[in-house]
Specification:
Blueprint: E1 21-30, E2 40-46, E3 61-65, E4 79-82, E5 96-102, E6 105-108, E7 111-114, H1 116-123, E8 129-136, E9 150-156, H2 160-171, E10 179-185, H3 194-203, E11 207-213, H4 229-233, H5 235-243, E12 247-253, H6 257-267, E13 274-276, H7 278-281, H8 290-296, E14 297-299, E15 303-307
Bound molecules: flavin-adenine dinucleotide.
Length: 308
């Protein structure tokens, strides 16, 4: 690396769960393609008059305290949601902070469970007040000298949230490097903010948007297409960027998604994005087992990861 990665100083927990603030919903709309069974919503909060105004950086999260109590009669715990607006605020307005929320629904032993906080948020109406905390997160950030780097961003599901903000932040501030967003989801109807990213791709020559639709797209060998498949399948687009000295990788979304990305980076010889412990050094990356990788492959300083 010829550039030093300097992360900005951030403020943490201006508001704690014991002393939350109140923000107001100003927007709540579906941001997946119409008729998707996996509802994801874009929510914007007015934070004016609170100390969150202008103090939440892209890549950070805010906490939401849903009302009500759990089965033990204790107040529900806070849940974290990545900010999907840029640091300067939604539409450049420092009083507006957005997030991207997926309704979680689970069937277990014949009973349907709806996630407490995500469904609470998804049901909110414009004008409703919400208890919020934060910000949180001090590592999953764009460097202070953001324009000195190139970026490959990998997202699954609502992992797209921080990347919406980062893409806006970089491209609208005269960024001239390479920026690629690789998004993975099961079905085409699960694409999130797809129209927005396609428009940005048309507008900015240095931005590429790659989608991997695992249950619909097939690779040349007939296997499913996941985000990590792009490292092999889109070599013409990605390898020249990975090879550059000042490229950073960001990974956000479902826990476990990082494994395939690490493995394929190693297969392609891009070891500089990883810290590989001696135990795996003698094993070909193609043969790495996930159990071994958990302990023996870590992101290097050039790789940023937020999985949940
Ligand atoms: C750093 C960070 C950033 C995040 N960013 C985002 C984001 O941008 N957008 C986003 O949508 N999420 C994000 N999350 C996840 C978010 O914090 C919540 O975990 C998520 O919304 C689920 O919370 P919930 O209250 O809706 O579900 P919970 O009520 O906590 O339930 C979790 C899951 O378990 C199921 N369940 C509940 N009870 C049972 C039971 N008895 N048996 C079986 N299943 C059950 C629910 O249906 C649900 O699927 C982030 C998490 C982290 C850590």
């Amino acid at each position: 690396m010829s550039e030093e990665i300097v992360l900005p100083e951030v403020e943490l927990n201006i508001y704690s769960p014991k002393d939350p603030t109140e923000v107001t919903v100003v927007e709540n709309y579906i941001c997946t393609i119409e008729n998707s069974p996996n509802f994801v919503r874009h929510l914007t909060f007015d934070v004016s008059g609170t100390d969150l105004e202008g103090r939440v950086r892209v890549g950070q999260s805010i906490g939401i305290l849903p009302p009500g109590v759990n089965e033990k009669g204790r107040p529900h715990k806070l849940r974290l949601y990545s900010v999907s607006s840029p640091t300067k605020g939604e539409n450049g307005n420092s009083t507006l902070i957005s997030t991207t929320v997926k309704r979680t629904i689970e069937e277990f032993e014949g009973k349907l469970y709806t996630g407490i906080c995500s469904n609470y948020l998804a049901d909110l109406q414009v004008g409703d007040k919400v208890k919020a905390t934060g910000p949180s997160g001090r590592r999953f950030l764009l460097p202070q000298n953001a324009n000195d780097f190139n970026y490959v961003l990998f997202a699954t599901g609502t992992g797209i949230a921080p990347f919406r903000g980062m893409v806006i932040e970089l491209l609208e501030s005269g960024f001239k490097g390479d920026l690629v967003l690789v998004f993975g989801c099961p079905y085409r109807t699960d694409l999130i903010y797809a129209d927005f990213f396609r428009k940005m791709e048309q507008k900015y020559d240095n931005f590429q948007y790659i989608t991997c639709i695992s249950r619909e797209d097939r690779r040349a060998d007939g296997s499913k297409k996941y985000v990590q498949s792009s490292i092999e399948d889109c070599q013409d687009q990605l390898s020249p960027i990975f090879e550059k000295e000042n490229t950073l990788i960001y990974i956000c979304g479902l826990k476990g998604m990082e494994a395939g990305i690490y493995q394929n980076l190693a297969i392609q010889g891009f070891d500089e994005y990883l810290v590989i412990k001696p135990k795996l050094e003698t094993i070909a990356p193609e043969d790495w087992k996930w159990e071994d990788m958990k302990r023996n492959v870590k992101p290097s300083t050039r790789t940023f990861e937020e999985v949940y």
